[in-house]
Amino acid sequence: MTLPVIDYRKHRAGRQSLVEYWRLVRLTIGTAVFNAVRIGHKMVLALGPVRPLEMDRLVVVGFGGIGNHILLLPALSAIKNAHPHVLLHLAAASQICADLMAEDPNVDECSVLDPGWLRSFRLCLKAGRMLAAIHPSAVLVAAGADPVRGSVMTMLSHASIRVGEDWRGRAMFYTHAAPVDPNLSELRRNIRLAGLVGGGEGPGRPCLMLKDEEKNSARRLMHDLTGGKTAKILGVHAGSSSEQSWKRWGLDRFIATVRIVLDRTDMAAVFFLGPDETDLKQSIESARLARTSVFPCLNGIRVAAALIGCCDLFLSNDSGLRHLASAQGLPTITVFGPTSEIKNATDNASDAIIVEDVVQCRPCHYTRWFLACGNSMPCLTRVSPERVAEAVVKTLSDQ
């Protein structure tokens, strides 16, 4: 049976259209002002001396959540391989991300920068002053960050080398900029930015480094969770951050999928819950799934990462925990809805992607049609548990 094509880009609510027109007016005025400043700034740069590409302290400004920081790892490696003498300081977007990245061998220093600079110019100015206190000779803003606020923040840091992405000439204060390419993954865009400061290609995919004691402790914990009675373990993440709950496929669908997988295989399942998802625990336990455990990730992100590494296969939404699994070489199966599987690609050959092809308005994240469906999200609801369970079983049989 042929399914009808769904495209909510053709159905716009009147109120939503008015909001978009007002945004367009603000964008037009803002563009005129920034273009005037940009042209003047380019003239000043043309009259001034050329800055040599010399660095002694490079600050990399992280963007987004756990997944975005994981996708930054190959770029950090490329920079450190090309400039081993440079002190690399990572300004992470949250304490969780800082805890995760601080042990990476390519990171010499790590701090937390209030991510509010992406939404408020007042906080953007404050972030610029915080960066200036580090005394960087170069600042690199990760791919995906707002080019206007990012370039202003780097200018306030007094760094002579300022690197980031440009979109339609809005990154006026970067000295080295790469245009946004929607056909490239965020991972590749970060590596391209690293190339502007002399970094090479770096590794093909992110690689998360964990200590031996962290891995050994996780193995003992996983043995306690599963009873050590099964050879294969399926890790499951059915949630996401509360700010991005629209990425969730749905707990009921994950439970139905796990039930099918457990009926067809002898695997055990472990549901991982983030700090914003502990309310899901009771629903999972009430489903009375066989050979299933629940692990709330409340003891630190590195503990959760090490425990995820003990799994043989990981099933999730497009979430940060999915990137933790992929960065440790685990095969992953991800249900994508409003977000883009191209942008969030991990370059892990064993990753499987499940999307609903007949919904042509997806991916709508970062577009003017974002959730134009009014949160009905057929791109997620039309994906059946049976289809996902078949992908899990097939991936398991291919191992």
In whole angstroms, the N-to-C terminal distance is 32 Å
The amount of beta strand, in percent, is: 5-15%
Give the strand order, joined by hyphens, for the main sheet: 3-2-1-4-5-6
How would you describe the shape? globular
The overall strand count is 12
What is the structural class? alpha/beta
Mean model confidence by pLDDT: 87
Main sheet: strands, sense, barrel? 6 strands, parallel
- The helix/strand series, from N terminus to C terminus, equals HEHHEHEHEHEEHHEHEHEHEHEEHH
Share in helix: 25-40%
How would you describe this structure to a colleague?
The chain has 399 residues and is an alpha/beta fold. 40% of the residues lie in helices and 14% in strands. It contains 14 helices and twelve strands. Strand 2, helix 4 and strand 3 form a beta-alpha-beta unit. Helix 3 runs parallel beside helix 7. The chain is globular, with a radius of gyration of 22 Å.
